[in-house]
Amino acid sequence: MPSSHRGGRITAAVALAAAVITLTPGPVAAEEYGQGHDIGIGGLVGEPMAFSMKWLIGGGHGLQAVFGFDVWYRDGFLTAVDWVWHPLIIVSQSKFDLSFHIGAGMFLGVWYNRYWDYGCRYDPAARRYYDCHDSDAGFGGHFPVGLDFLFQDVPIELSLEFAPGVWFYPYIGFSAFGGAHVRYFF
């Protein structure tokens, strides 16, 4: 590609980014996030598939909890409780607020492993796994980060979240949860 075309594209990209930044209202203090809407109830689609709640305490702080099923990796129940903080509102418009959150929390899981447990044995002649009845419980900690859209006309929050963490029991290992929350606020 000739360098003149590349330079023109870079200039156009920089001009577009400058226009978006200039025309977008600036960050707003996090204390205003969710003002007038304290409790949100809805669901989480992802890992886990769950019932989701959020309580906005004030000052940009909140507690969120999920109660659901870990359907992708293990057949089981998972619950998590997190403290979340909205440090700032990136965009505040009359129709919606766009914010991000960070936090810390704990999770607890109870599951029944099937054939993907390491203790299973495979019988090639029968083409099946056996001795795979491993039930267990575990807990750990994680650090959710996410992007939140809170609509003003209809108090609905859409939140995309990723929560990397660590299992502490029954083994020490990496965990990753996340998905899309949809909550209606009262």
Brief descriptors of the model:
Porin, eleven-stranded antiparallel beta sheet, 11% helix
Question: How would you characterize this protein structure?
Answer:
The chain has one helix at residues 3-23, and strands spanning 28-29, 39-47, 49-58, 61-70, 75-85, 88-92, 96-113, 121-123, 128-130, 134-142, 145-151, 156-169, 173-185. A hairpin with a 4-residue loop joins strand 4 and strand 5 (75-85). The chain is built from one helix and 13 strands, in the order αβββββββββββββ. It has one domain: Porin (Beta Barrel), CATH 2.40.160. Strands 1, 2, 3, 4, 5, 6, 7, 10, 11, 12 and 13 form an eleven-stranded antiparallel β-sheet that branches. The chain is 11% helix and 61% strand. The chain is mainly β and 186 residues long.
Spatial separation of the terminal alpha carbons: 55 Å
Under CATH, the topology is which? Porin
Please state the overall shape, judged from the principal axes of the Cα atoms.
globular
What proportion strand?
over 45%
> What top-tier CATH class fits best?
Mainly Beta
Please work out how many helical segments DSSP would assign.
Answer: 1
Sheet of most strands: 11 strands, antiparallel
Please give the number of β-strands. 13
Percent helix among the residues? 10-25%
Which stretches of 5+ consecutive residues score pLDDT under 50? 22-27
The CATH architecture: Beta Barrel
Rounded radius of gyration (Å): 22 Å
Number of domains: 1
